[in-house]
Amino acid sequence: MRTDIGADRHGSFVRAVKSLVVPRPIAWVSSVSAAGVHNLAPHSFFTVASGSPTIVQFVSVGEKDSLRNIRHSREFVVNLAAAGLFERINATGTDYPPGISEFDAAGLTREPSLTVAAPRVAESPAAIECRLHGEPLPIGDSFLVFGEVTHVVVDEDAMDERGPVVRSLDPIARLGRNEWGELGRIRSIRRVPYRETAPEADLP
């Protein structure tokens, strides 16, 4: 038996959908305001948009400081949201006035970026430096922001010969309600090409 979920009092299904589209990786976005204030905020609608060129995307729900700053500077950094920084990541989601830097409010260290002016979070094990690709795209009550990757940095102890190691990075993710998730069991499986599964007579 299933339960039908109707639109909530705000006229949308967002609360139910956010509990179903899980886990969601977090874009911990650092940016610089026109006044030079370093902003840092978590955005949990985040993914990769393109492989070549490499473009990431995140959604600003409403017109927040991150969006305003990126429109002005046309650049930003996505810092990896690691589980060990859980409370401080959450603290940077507080609605501080634009003149207050979340770096200072949450006790985080600025680290200079290589290709953009926005600083990286020194405590984060990895960062993706980006330049704004196109213009933020308005969708409903939100704005879709695309960033072309200009540089990637990863802590040496979170790398092996093949690249970043997810267990060492230990990312945290958003779930529904006020819930967050950490890495549990990790499984690997190779994608099987059709040629290996089809009878020989069916192969071109």
**Protein structure class:** alpha+beta
Strand content: 25-35%
CATH top level?
A: Mainly Beta
Please tell me the CATH architecture by its name.
Answer: Roll
As residue ranges, the low-confidence spans are: none
What is the general shape?
A: globular
Topology as a string of helices (H) and strands (E): HEEEEEHEHHEEEEEEEHEE
Rg computed from alpha carbons, rounded to a whole number of angstroms? 19 Å
Number of domains: 1
CATH superfamily: Electron Transport, Fmn-binding Protein, Chain A
Can you tell me the CATH topology? Answer: Pnp Oxidase, Chain A
**What's the mean pLDDT score?**
94
| Number of helical regions | 5
Helix content: 10-25%
The overall strand count is 15
- What does the largest sheet look like? 8 strands, antiparallel
Distance between the termini: 46 Å
What order do the helices and strands come in, and which of them pair?
Blueprint: H1 14-20, E1 24-25, E2 27-32, E3 38-43, E4 46-50, E5 55-61, H2 65-73, E6 75-80, H3 86-91, H4 102-105, E7 110-111, E8 120-121, E9 126-132, E10 137-139, E11 142-154, E12 159-160, E13 163-164, H5 166-169, E14 173-174, E15 180-181
Antiparallel strand pairs: 1-14, 2-3, 2-6, 4-5, 5-11, 6-9, 7-8, 9-11, 10-11, 12-13, 14-15
Describe the fold and architecture.
- It is a single chain.
- The chain has a single domain, classed as Pnp Oxidase, Chain A (Roll).
- The protein is 15% helix and 33% strand.
- It has helices at residues 14-20, 65-73, 86-91, 102-105, 166-169; strands at 24-25, 27-32, 38-43, 46-50, 55-61, 75-80, 110-111, 120-121, 126-132, 137-139, 142-154, 159-160, 163-164, 173-174, 180-181.
- The strands form four sheets. Strands 2, 3, 4, 5, 6, 9, 10 and 11 form an eight-stranded antiparallel sheet that branches. Strands 1-14-15 form a three-stranded antiparallel sheet, with no helix packed on it. Strands 7-8 form a two-stranded antiparallel sheet.
- The longest helix has 9 residues, at 65-73.
- The termini are far apart.
